[in-house]
Write a structure and sequence with these properties.
Elements lengths: L2 E4 L8 E6 L7 H5 L9 E5 L6 E6 L8 H13 L6 E4 L11 H15 L17 E4 L4 H22 L7 H15 L9 H4 L9
Parallel strand pairs: 1-6, 2-4, 2-5, 5-6
Antiparallel strand pairs: 3-4
Helix pairs in contact: 2-3, 3-4
Length: 206
């Protein structure tokens, strides 16, 4: 599973996503390939070091970016990554918005994690492996952790919904929830048989 963590602006990575509000500020290479800095637009180009790939990501006009725009940009960047072990998302570093840094980091982190989600447990042909690590720059470590917690909860719910009934039995469902609670440092109590009836859950009676 891909690790999503806080990163620094100058950390090397195989792929770096850079935000733009104005296409004129991007490279001539990107502009020749049609980059207009529209919301969610992504154009890739070789980085100056010759070893990594730069993703030019559009955020729309300066001052217009909302949390939804940052989420869209993060998802578009993750989809455009291709084969890479490490990815650095600099999307929250833009100064062309009135949004606080914490809100930008939260939006980018949450959507990036959800865009990485896959359920291919029963697929015979495995798709391209996801990145090993995604780094989100912009500071605000608390906002990043909060966003990750919410996204991981959503991914768990997706796993449970996607699991076939023969795999996700009542017992295995209980085990999954117990494991998730333990990982989060929470207590969890599972009710079985008569114990569940005493709680008034009549719909669960056989």
């Amino acid at each position: 599973m891909t690790v999503v963590r806080a990163g620094e602006p100058h950390e090397p990575a195989d792929v770096v996503a850079r935000p733009w509000h104005c296409a004129a500020e991007a490279s001539p290479f990107a502009r020749r390939r049609g980059f207009l800095a529209k919301e969610g637009q992504v154009v890739a180009e070789p980085a100056e070091d010759g070893r990594s790939v730069l993703l030019n990501v559009g955020l729309g006009p300066a001052g217009s970016a909302t949390a939804a725009v940052f989420r869209q940009a993060a998802a578009a960047a993750i989809r455009a990554v291709g084969p890479a072990r490490t990815v650095r998302l600099d999307l929250a570093l833009t100064e062309g918005t009135a949004m606080p840094a914490a809100e930008r980091v939260r939006a980018v982190t949450e959507r990036a994690r959800l865009a990485l989600y896959r359920y291919d447990t029963f697929r015979s042909a495995r798709p391209l492996p996801p990145p090993v690590e995604v780094r989100v720059t912009g500071g605000a470590p608390e906002a990043l952790l909060e966003a990750l917690a919410g996204a991981e909860g959503t991914c768990l719910a997706r796993d449970l919904v996607n699991s076939p009934p023969g795999v996700l039995t009542p017992a295995s469902f209980a085990h999954r929830i117990e494991a998730a609670a333990a990982e989060a440092g929470l207590s969890c109590e599972v009710y079985e048989g008569p114990a569940s009836h005493s709680c008034g859950w009549r719909v669960l009676r056989p």
